[in-house]
């Protein structure tokens, strides 16, 4: 602040904003192309300044209590002579005492932009860029990024607006000076980090002249008291996160023999899931619970306890803390509700609980959680008897019900899970802690999140950006709409940030953000099973022409390129396919029954250097048609024995397994993903098909939409990773 005396002057006079002239003085120091202007005190001085600057001019009133100049009637445009300047100056000075006059040349231009800085309560300083002037609010064509920015990020902001064509040569005017625009954005980014007393900067309009030059003709800077900083949860270290998911012994405090109670459900699901560690039931009445004797207190348990799963009412939790400390228990999974999600009193109780846990050296997961699981040690401590297979996808959900539904679908579709947590109220262990824990976990390949809010937005962003460099984060955000935000607030006790800013955070951090719950699983299947595409060029192989056309349209809509086949590839396909094949991309294999054709075409496409991924439509699922056909033949033609017909069906089943195996081997050879779409599915079908001895797996979706979305999101993620690695 020492370099900006105008800020000291404003604070001394009790102002929380700078005058326009003061604001532009600071902006000029940071490379913003502000308009030439002069501050005067009298009408005669205004005339002299106008003559020096050159007519036409603009006069504005500025003063310590004058924030909204247009509404106050102290802005006069297009003044062409001495008389009009004198009249305008008299009117401005008559408005109120202490007003001075800002004289500027009139800047003309058809294109106007807005550039801004603000400090979000969750994510900290952010930069805004977009269409300015009267269109800022009307069209809302703006983009956001968190500061500090790199030059590449500033450039990407410019390319991200919908009206970016206005930056090029337009209606006889030259292209906008892109370097000046990048410099302006970077200047605000520097202010964000170097001048914390500045809460907001609003440059609107930033006018592009006929020659493409930029001029900031209006600017507003508001200030903030930096002595008040928000309290953030203390981080939970990754080893503590790891320990939560690898307990060697578990005590169920509040265990019950009554079916339907949490204390009964959790211990039964844990025991029946095959957990090999020691399991203890704790109930003050003693007795038998889940086939084992219950201890009346925690301290009665004879062996060590790594994790306490607590379901007793909220009022009884404080009395448990000293017992857990005495027993040496360092981790508590608190299922009990009645804390921060209930309102102010609940928040106070939750804070007191966290304080007591910290004093006792206890890490608290929850409260108000549905539980956790780690399939790698068959630890399924959840409110639902869902048992996904072991895998590499780590899942955290701020809605336990949503989380268990996703796990159930993952189990059906063969998607392996590294670990799951229903994070509850996140009183102590937050979404940021989980991400940093999974970042260093060697078994985690993909992180899948359902979130409604974050406790520390800046840490969330920085953690996510770091994790995304190593492994993909697939995220669904609840509370995107006004109704959703209200529901999220009542559900978690936290308000959601502006949806557009959160989208920007995801883009900047490399997070793969999806719009629907099932997309989380579709992306988890792809990221955990397929190699990343190195670009956005897609070859399509289809069993039917119409399906290929629809898929090609979807690719174009989602930013994937469907390139024309090379002449060499067409000649190669001519030797594989009959003369009437499509001779274009999509490649229609015209329903041929020769089982060698699909794999030959697939390999040719993967070997082609003109594509980065292949979408294969309709090879799997033909067995279902064959089975139905065999049943029809058996009913209509007694000349065929059941053994003959069953043999035909079996050959198709065997072929599909062979096709999956060979598809995976081809992905290993060419390091390109194959996104499969089944012709038909039945209850036996899964999305993910493991192949022994390979780290890749076959992935076959039910619809082309699923395959195209997965391919587009993977290509988007790879572009981000390539960009940040340069």
What overall geometry do the principal axes of the alpha carbons give?
Answer: flat
Query: CATH superfamily membership of the largest domain, which one?
Result: Succinyl-CoA synthetase domains
Biggest β-sheet: count, sense, barrel?
Answer: 7 strands, mixed
Q: Can you tell me the residue ranges where pLDDT is under 50 for at least 5 consecutive residues?
A: 486-497
Class of secondary structure makeup:
alpha/beta
CATH architecture of the largest domain: 3-Layer(aba) Sandwich
- What is the CATH domain class of the largest domain? Alpha Beta
Calculate the mean pLDDT score and round it.
92
The proportion of strand residues reads 15-25%
**Amino- and carboxy-terminal Cα gap:** 35 Å
Number of helices: 23
Q: Tell me the CATH topology of the largest domain.
A: Rossmann fold
- Number of extended strands: 30
How many domains, in number, for the residues?
4
Keywords:
alpha/beta; single chain; 30 strands; D-amino Acid Aminotransferase, Chain A, domain 1; Rossmann fold; 7-stranded mixed beta sheet; 40% helix
Describe what this molecule looks like in 3D.
By secondary structure, this protein is α/β, with parallel strands linked by helices. It folds into four domains: 36-105, Dna Ligase, domain 1, CATH 3.30.1490.20; 111-223, D-amino Acid Aminotransferase, Chain A, domain 1; 238-528, Rossmann fold; 530-725, Rossmann fold. 40% of the residues lie in helices and 21% in strands. The chain has 23 helices and 30 strands. The strands form five sheets. Strands 13-14-12-11-15-16-17 form a seven-stranded mixed sheet, with helices on both faces. Helix 6 packs across helix 7, helix 14 runs parallel beside helix 16 and helix 21 (622-636) packs antiparallel against helix 22 (642-670). The two termini are 35 Å apart.
């Amino acid at each position: 602040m020492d370099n900006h005396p105008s800020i000291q002057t404003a604070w001394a006079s009790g102002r929380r904003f700078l005058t326009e002239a003061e604001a532009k003085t600071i902006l000029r120091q940071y490379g913003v192309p502000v308009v030439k202007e002069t501050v005067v005190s009298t009408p005669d001085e205004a005339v002299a300044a106008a003559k020096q600057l050159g007519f036409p001019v603009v006069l504005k009133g500025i003063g310590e209590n004058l924030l909204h100049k247009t509404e106050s009637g102290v802005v006069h445009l297009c003044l062409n002579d001495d008389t009009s300047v004198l009249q305008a100056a008299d009117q401005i000075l008559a408005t109120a005492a202490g007003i001075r006059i800002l004289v500027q040349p009139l800047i003309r231009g058809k294109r106007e932009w807005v550039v801004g800085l603000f400090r979000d309560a969750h994510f900290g300083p952010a930069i805004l860029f977009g269409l300015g002037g009267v269109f800022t609010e009307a069209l809302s064509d703006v983009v956001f990024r968190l500061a500090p920015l790199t030059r590449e990020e500033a450039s990407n902001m410019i390319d991200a607006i919908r009206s970016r064509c206005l930056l090029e040569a337009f209606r006889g005017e030259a292209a906008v000076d892109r370097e000046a625009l990048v410099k302006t954005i970077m200047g605000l980014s520097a202010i964000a980090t170097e001048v914390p007393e500045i809460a907001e900067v609003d440059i609107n309009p930033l006018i592009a002249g006929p020659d493409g030059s930029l001029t900031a003709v209006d600017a507003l800077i508001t200030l903030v008291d930096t002595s008040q900083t928000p309290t953030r949860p203390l981080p939970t270290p990754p080893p503590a996160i790891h320990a939560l998911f690898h307990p060697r012994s578990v005590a169920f405090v509040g265990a019950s023999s009554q079916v339907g109670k949490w204390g009964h459900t959790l211990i039964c699901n844990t025991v029946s899931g095959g957990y090999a560690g020691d399991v203890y039931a704790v109930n003050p009445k003693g007795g038998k619970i889940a086939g084992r004797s219950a201890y009346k207190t925690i301290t009665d348990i004879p062996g060590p306890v790594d994790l306490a799963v607590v379901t007793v009412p909220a009022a009884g939790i404080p009395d448990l803390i000293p017992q857990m400390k005495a027993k040496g228990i360092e981790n508590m999974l608190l299922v009990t509700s009645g804390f921060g999600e209930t309102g102010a009193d609940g928040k106070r109780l939750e804070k007191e609980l966290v304080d007591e846990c910290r004093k006792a050296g206890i890490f608290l997961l929850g409260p108000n959680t549905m539980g956790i699981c780690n399939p790698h040690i068959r630890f399924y401590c959840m409110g639902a008897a869902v048992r996904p297979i072991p895998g590499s996808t780590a899942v955290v959900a701020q809605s336990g019900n949503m989380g268990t539904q996703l796990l159930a679908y993952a189990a059906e579709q063969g998607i392996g899970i590294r670990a799951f947590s229903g994070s509850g109220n996140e009183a102590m262990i937050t979404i940021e802690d989980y991400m940093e824990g999974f970042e260093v976990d060697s078994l985690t390949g993909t992180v899948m999140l359902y979130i409604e809010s974050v406790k520390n937005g800046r840490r969330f962003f920085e953690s996510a950006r770091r994790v995304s460099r190593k492994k993909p984060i697939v995220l669904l955000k609840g509370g995107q709409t006004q109704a959703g935000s209200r529901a999220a607030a009542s559900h978690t006790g936290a308000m959601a940030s502006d949806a557009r800013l959160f989208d920007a955070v995801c883009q900047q951090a490399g997070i793969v953000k999806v719009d629907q719950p099932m997309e989380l699983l579709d992306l988890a299947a792809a990221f955990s099973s397929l190699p990343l595409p190195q670009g956005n060029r897609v070859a399509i192989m289809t069993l039917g022409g119409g399906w290929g056309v629809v898929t090609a349209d979807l690719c174009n809509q989602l930013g994937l390129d469907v390139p024309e086949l090379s002449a060499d590839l067409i000649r190669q396909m001519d030797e594989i396919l009959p003369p009437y094949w499509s001779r274009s991309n999509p490649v229609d294999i015209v329903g041929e029954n020769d089982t060698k054709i699909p794999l030959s075409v697939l390999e040719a496409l993967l070997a082609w250097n003109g594509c980065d991924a292949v979408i294969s439509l309709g090879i799997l699922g033909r067995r279902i048609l064959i089975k139905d056909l065999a049943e029809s033949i058996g009913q209509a033609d007694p000349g065929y024995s059941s053994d003959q017909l069953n043999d035909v069906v079996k050959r198709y089943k065997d072929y599909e397994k062979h096709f999956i195996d060979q598809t995976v081997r081809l992905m290993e050879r060419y390091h390109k993903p194959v996104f499969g779409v089944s012709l038909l599915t039945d209850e036996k079908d899964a999305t993910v098909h493991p192949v022994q001895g390979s780290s890749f797996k076959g992935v076959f979706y039910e619809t082309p939409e699923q395959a195209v979305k997965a391919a587009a999101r993977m290509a988007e993620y790879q572009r981000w990773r390539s960009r940040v690695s340069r």
